[in-house]
Amino acid sequence: MSLPADTPPAVADALGYLQHHLQELTKHQNTSEHIINNTLTGLTAQIQQLTQLMTGPAPAPTVAPPRVTTSPPPVNPPSPVPSAPTKQQTRPKLPSPPNFSGERTSGQAFLNSCTLYLRLAPEQFSSDKEKIFWTLAFFKDGHAAKWSKNLFRQEADTSIFPIQSWVNFKQQFWSQFFPVNVEADAINTLEGSSYYQGN
């Protein structure tokens, strides 16, 4: 913009200053518009991804192309929406069964704890032998430790582990570590002094 020749220098300087700042503000406005358009485009894409994850396949996105501006600064695209967590990612950490000493009164609870773990984490065990060895790892003392030691001694003598299936292991576990007569034990417990309620 040209000024008349008789314009005072202070006014010319002030107008030049204002004109420079107006150009800077226009450039910043263009940059801001570009950033906002890119952000809106990214947000729209993320909303469509979320909608698609929640409802299934969605039609192709219809987003207007961003307005072209002169020499916009480089803008990093928004990060993609993380995928929904898988079933395995949301599974709680499973507690291991307690150590087992071989007491018949706790045999059912121990076997239930092992069975529950095996059912909730089947991917950790590729064979029945792995299930059996994992369970035997909790046989730390008492009759259970002696029984486990005997199984491994038989394997050392014959080069074959004596129990080959999980079903067979459970059957032998029942015979070794469950009460001999569950009904009689329950009646004896109920009739015992610890359940007596009168004087």
Shape: rod-shaped
List low-confidence stretches.
none
Q: What is the makeup of the main sheet? A: none
H and E order: HHHHHHH
What is the helix tally?
7
Structure description:
The structure is a single chain. With 199 residues, the chain is an all-alpha fold. The protein has two domains: 1-84; 90-195. It contains seven helices and no strands. It is rod-shaped, with a radius of gyration of 38 Å.
Q: Short description, anyone?
A:
This protein has 199 residues and is an all-alpha fold.
Question: Any key phrases for this structure?
Answer:
2 domains, mainly alpha, single chain
Write the layout of secondary structure elements.
Blueprint: H1 9-55, H2 87-90, H3 107-120, H4 128-136, H5 142-158, H6 166-177, H7 182-191
